[in-house]
Amino acid sequence: MPRPKTHDEALRVRLLDRAGELLSGEGPDALSLRRLAADVGTSTTAVYSLFGGKPALVRELYVDAFHRFGNRLTEVSRSGDPAEDLVQLGLAYRRAALAEPHLYLIMFTKAVAGFEPDHETAAHVLGPMVEVGRLAGLPDPETAAMTVWGLVHGLVSLELNGNLTDAGQVERVLRAGLAGFSVSVAVPRATTSPYA
After folding, report:
1. How far is the C-alpha of 82 from the C-alpha of 183, rounded, in Å?
2. Is 195 a domain residue?
3. Number of structural domains, the chain?
4. For position 194, what pLDDT does the model report?
5. Is 97 exposed, middle or buried (0-12, 13-18, 19+ CB in 10 A)?
6. For residues 23 and 112, is the Cβ–Cβ distance under 8 A?
7. CA-CA 20 to 30 A from 130: which of 27, 88, 173, 186?
8. What are the mean pLDDT values of the chain's consecutive 10-residue runs (196 residues total)?
9. 3-state helix/strand/coil string of the chain
């Protein structure tokens, strides 16, 4: 009879989730492989077997956080109305951040000294927004996506830090800001002076 596999995907996910909770809740000094293994009910051997060590664990945590987050954004169906699509992406962004705040912190802060994130991984967040901009025929969809990201990230960060406590207000501001932005970039500007 084959030996059961104990270092599986479920254990990997539990270790990543707990590592994110430790980093976001107690800081980088709280993340030791021994404590992580004990908290999850496994051995340090299992952690080394799955990740190879702490630097690789942190890297995998960062990449996994962006993949999960990006998957939530790509699940948003397109309506054909770019303004509404941006609003829905912004709301999905907020839901993703609120669902896994411990991972959101890892994605957008320097939670571990010496860890250098890569920009390719962050494309999981910007990609869906750039796509909506392209479909809308915007002249600079990348800049539009960065602007939307800044608005949404700012509001979500304020909410997660306890500066904005009215969830209804956050959603209303998010909707108004995204709808207003998408209308302003979609409306062509006059190319001649009205005084000519």
Report:
1. 9
2. no
3. 1
4. 38
5. buried
6. yes
7. 173
8. 61 93 88 94 94 89 88 86 83 92 83 70 76 74 83 92 89 84 56 38
9. CCCCCCCCHHHHHHHHHHHHHHHHHHCHHHCCHHHHHHHHCCCHHHHHHHHCCHHHHHHHHHHHHHHHHHHHHHCCCCCCCHHHHHHHHHHHHHHHHHHCHHHHHHHHCCCCCCCCCCHHHHHHHHHHHHHHHHHCCCCCHHHHHHHHHHHHHHHHHHHHCCCCCCHHHHHHHHHHHHHHHHHHHHCCCCCCCCCC
Q: Which two tokens stand for residue 12?
A: 């990997």
Spatial distance between the Cα atoms of 114 and 179, rounded to a whole number of angstroms:
39
Token pair of 111, please? Answer: 């939670």
Q: Are 121 and 62 in contact (CB under 8 A)?
A: yes
* Residue 1 in domain: no
Q: Domain containing 33: what range?
A: 9-179
Question: Which pLDDT score, from 0 to 100, does residue 123 have?
Answer: 72
CATH code for the domain of 97: 1.10.357.10
CA triplet 115, 116, 122: central angle to 5 degrees?
Answer: 120
- Of 122, 92, 128, nearest in space to 106 by CA: 122
HSE on the CB side for 179, CA within 13 Å? 8
Confidence at residue 186, expressed as pLDDT on a 0 to 100 scale: 56
pLDDT of residue 196: 39
| 55 falls within a domain | yes
Structure tokens at 88: 């829905």
